[in-house]
Amino acid sequence: MTIQTPKTNSARMNATIQASCEWGCTPDGGMARLALSDADASVRRWFIAETKALGCAVHIDAMGNIFAVRPGRYDLPPIAVGSHLDTQPTGGRYDGILGVLAGLEILRALDEAAYRTAYPVAAVCWTNEEGARFVPSCLGSGVYAGALSLQYGHSRTDEAGVSVRAELERHGMLGELEASHTSNPLTAHFELHIEQGPILHEAKQPVAAVSGVQGWRWFEIALQGRGSHAGTTPFAYRRDPLIAFAKLVLAAERVAQSLGGLCTIGRVGSTAAQSTNCVMDDVVFHLDLRHHTAEGMAALEGTMRAEFATIIAGEEGVEITRWDTLTAVQPTVFDTEAVACVRHAAEATGMAHEDLVSGAGHDSVFTARTCPTAMCFIRCRDGISHHPSEYATPEDIAVGTEVLLQAVLAYERKLTAKLEHKS
Predict the structure, then answer these.
(1) Could you tell me the mean pLDDT of each successive run of 10 residues in the chain, 423 residues long?
(2) What is residue 218's predicted lDDT score, i.e. its pLDDT?
(3) Are 362 and 138 in contact (CB under 8 A)?
(4) How many C-alpha atoms does 318 have within 13 Å on its Cβ side?
(5) How far apart are CA 355 and CA 375, in angstroms?
């Protein structure tokens, strides 16, 4: 067989994305493929079958993370291309899915060209990146990186009380391989992802290297008031936690804007039964904070706590009974050399935007703790993500996938040159 220069296939890549969305698709064109659901298990089995058909050795670790490894000339830890296949309950067809299938397409391109790399190359599917079913997000990569314990990862439960371990066992995805970067190391990790924001869309540029990821912290906060009759309790006698909550929402936005960060309240509920003609008894909500520097994140949380305390002190009969940290991840700076490979490949297209900092968290945040890591963004229409209308054009997907392939090959050649020079 003639050895050719590897090149990704746009039509095949886009057909693969749509085929993979058979599992978990919704009538509105979006996706609802929660982590370790039946749909997620089905697409994982499909991914395993597709990579085995290319001659890859497939390993599943104790968190269900899947590593499909194409051998290289040397028996070394692989250079990985990875992301996730789980989605939000009202998600789209590109978030995470694009990154895993870019890994698959790169394996196909290498195989098609009969191209033998010195280092093995792997496509990786990380477990429960979204955190929509099992909190926190990036659970599989977090355990792999040693940021979370295996016991913690296995014991996470969904709203029905079903644990991660139980679902891994049910689907046959509880692998024997230790979920650890020490026993299953990677040489490097690359990830292709939609931007999930408006910068590339507004700039009319399809691709950019990513220099790092802003930090994030998730909290669950409980407010306790006193339930009462809506028609017989005058305002002066009410102990309404919902009114206090509304004031906290406005304060959170004000504080975040003043400190150059972001805040989102994405979940709101109550432990008590609710009724139209009742003052609520309690409010439980989730607060998401984001900042691109560690100092900024510390200031954001500290100021938010102080502001919330001041507001609640003025709400008679309402108190903060709980402020639990669900997850806390520091800002991440990616590897300079790996990022440069992505940047140079993107610039070669003549359509690259300057480097971006990711506003969203990704599995690459945790792989960056264990090995050189870089990301590549492509634009998504109107910057919309985590929604059925999330969309990236086939043309932009083609650009991003080819950029990632060339970045991986450039990085692999650099490492190979160093390795063979030493020997």
Answers:
(1) 82 98 98 99 99 99 99 98 98 98 99 98 99 96 98 98 99 98 99 98 98 95 97 96 98 98 95 93 97 96 98 97 93 98 98 96 97 99 98 98 99 95 77
(2) 93
(3) yes
(4) 31
(5) 10
CATH architecture of 215-329: 2-Layer Sandwich (3.30)
Domain boundaries, the chain: 10-214+331-422, 215-329
* Separation in Å, CA 41 to CA 20, 85, 93: 12, 10, 17
DSSP code for 77: P
Q: What was the pLDDT predicted at 1?
A: 47
352 vs 400: CA distance, rounded Å: 10
Task: Give the amino acid at 101.
Answer: L
3-state secondary structure (DSSP) of residue 314: coil
CB atoms < 10 A from the CB of 222, how many? 17
* Cα gap 38→113, rounded to integer Å: 35
State the burial class of residue 202 (Cβ atoms within 10 Å of its Cβ: 0-12, 13-18, 19+).
Answer: exposed
CA 316-317-320 angle, to 5 degrees, is 100
Superfamily of domain 10-214+331-422: Zn peptidases (3.40.630.10)
